[in-house]
């Protein structure tokens, strides 16, 4: 029988979990790991109430583990898909959160990159096989055996819980450094939304000045795609269902033009103008009008993960040798590169910082695309452990 979440590991942890596909969040006690080597000893120490004293002498973390106090966690639309079991893969109780930032509290004896007090983050991955072809090319995100930050299992079979919680523990390989110029609240969404758009812009060579890049869906991912594409020097067109986002997209986010996807005249006038499109839409939508916007050899890169398959018309692809592709987050090395790029070029998400007890309302608003453009939970100041 599986261990109780709060007894699975020796380190107490606290967060907010959703218990069933209703998607309603409530407080949740669980636990996080430390070094197996000291597990037995630690258990005895807890029993004799000597834990605090002996923590001075015995390391609590695995040799390569970094433990950190979570201060902020972004709310990705994937958290909503998962909370409501829209992909049919959720197991409950589920603590989401893969845009996690905080400050290091402990490091294992063999940690080389980090020390106590460092500002760090964890994105969507906490482990991978480290030996497959993808892992050896810094593409842990395409490792067949990766371990997701939440709703997944570590190699020892225990469950992963995400950043809607007070603490995180991860192997240093999966921890990134947050540069000084980047506040921890604004840095959080970079760890999923940021890398998810940065990686395909780079890989599909849409990062060249003067290219015409479309961004479909102006949400968490979409607004970061606009900002990164502009930082690369592209001419950016937003394709949106929300007319009210136009003014801000152009005046504040720096987009060059704005199309309403349901306005056939606008879409027709822009036909064949784009070198590439980053599609971040979370729901089912038509691809035909988007393929029509591409020039010959243009690339439509799918990033959104709707719960149902989309219809892919083939003829418009043939006529123009167009490409439809997909992309999943990014590797750890590239995530660090993206964070450093963001700090250097002042690419920051627009966030609405919320207390943890607002999370249920935030999810309702996210469902309605009513956020500019990412909710970030202020974990450090608002998550209080249950007595
Ligand atoms: P989000 O903040 O909710 O943004 C999605 C945007 O898509 C909305 O703001 C809305 O923009 C548009 N939209 C929503 N429903 C639509 C519909 N039915 N038809 C047309 N447009 C619609 O979500 P997000 O956090 O950016 O995530 C977007 C998607 O990417 C989710 O499915 C998420 O699971 C997925 N995702 C994938 C990866 C990856 O690695 N590939 C990583 C993270 C997230 P407008 O108002 O402008 O139309
Ligand atoms: Zn995400
Ligand atoms: Zn691998």
From TrEMBL:
GO term, biological process aspect, one: lignin biosynthetic process
EC number of this enzyme: 1.1.1.255
UniProt KW keywords: Metal-binding, NAD, Oxidoreductase, Zinc
Cofactors: Zn(2+)
Extent of the signal sequence: none
Gene Ontology molecular function: mannitol dehydrogenase activity; zinc ion binding
Reaction catalyzed: D-mannitol + NAD(+) = D-mannose + NADH + H(+)
Domain Enoyl reductase (ER): 53-377
UniProt xrefs under Gene3D superfamilies: Medium-chain alcohol dehydrogenases, catalytic domain, NAD(P)-binding Rossmann-like Domain
PANTHER family, per database record: ALDEHYDE REDUCTASE
Function: Oxidizes mannitol to mannose. Provides the initial step by which translocated mannitol is committed to central metabolism and, by regulating mannitol pool size, is important in regulating salt tolerance at the cellular level.
Recorded family membership: Belongs to the zinc-containing alcohol dehydrogenase family.
Stated name of the protein: mannitol dehydrogenase
Gene source species: Vigna radiata var. radiata
């Amino acid at each position: 029988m599986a261990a109780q979440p709060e007894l699975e590991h020796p380190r107490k942890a606290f967060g907010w979990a959703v218990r069933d596909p209703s998607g309603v969040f409530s407080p949740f006690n669980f636990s996080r790991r430390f070094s197996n080597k000291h597990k037995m000893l630690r258990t005895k120490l807890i029993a004799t109430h000597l834990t605090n004293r002996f923590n001075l002498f015995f390391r609590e973390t695995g040799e390569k583990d970094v433990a950190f106090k979570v201060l902020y966690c972004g709310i990705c639309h994937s958290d909503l898909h998962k909370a409501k079991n829209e992909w049919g893969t959720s197991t409950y109780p589920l603590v989401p959160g893969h845009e996690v930032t905080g400050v290091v509290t402990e490091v294992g004896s063999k940690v080389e990159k980090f020390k106590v007090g460092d500002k760090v983050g964890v994105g969507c991955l906490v482990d991978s096989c480290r030996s497959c072809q993808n892992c050896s090319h810094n593409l842990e995100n395409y490792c067949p055996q990766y371990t997701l930050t939440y709703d997944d299992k570590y190699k020892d079979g225990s469950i992963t819980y995400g950043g809607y919680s007070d603490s995180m523990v991860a192997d240093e390989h999966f921890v990134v450094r947050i540069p000084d110029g980047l506040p921890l609240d604004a840095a959080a969404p970079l760890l999923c939304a940021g890398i998810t758009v940065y990686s395909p812009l780079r890989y599909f060579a849409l990062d060249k000045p003067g290219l015409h890049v479309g961004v479909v869906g102006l949400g968490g991912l979409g607004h970061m795609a606009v900002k990164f594409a502009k930082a690369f020097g592209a001419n950016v067109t937003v394709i949106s269902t929300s007319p009210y986002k136009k003014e801000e997209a152009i005046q504040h986010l720096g987009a060059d033009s704005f199309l309403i996807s349901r306005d056939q005249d606008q879409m027709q006038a822009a036909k064949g103008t784009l070198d590439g499109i980053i599609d971040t839409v979370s729901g089912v939508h038509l691809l035909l009008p988007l393929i029509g916007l591409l020039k010959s050899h243009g690339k439509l890169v799918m990033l959104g993960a709707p719960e149902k398959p989309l219809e892919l018309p083939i003829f418009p692809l043939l006529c123009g040798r167009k490409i439809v592709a997909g992309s999943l987050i990014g590797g750890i090395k590239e995530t660090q590169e993206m964070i450093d790029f963001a700090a250097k070029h002042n690419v920051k998400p627009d966030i609405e910082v919320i207390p943890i007890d607002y999370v249920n309302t935030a999810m309702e608003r996210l469902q309605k695309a009513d956020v500019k453009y990412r909710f970030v939970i202020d974990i450090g100041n608002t998550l209080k452990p249950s007595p």
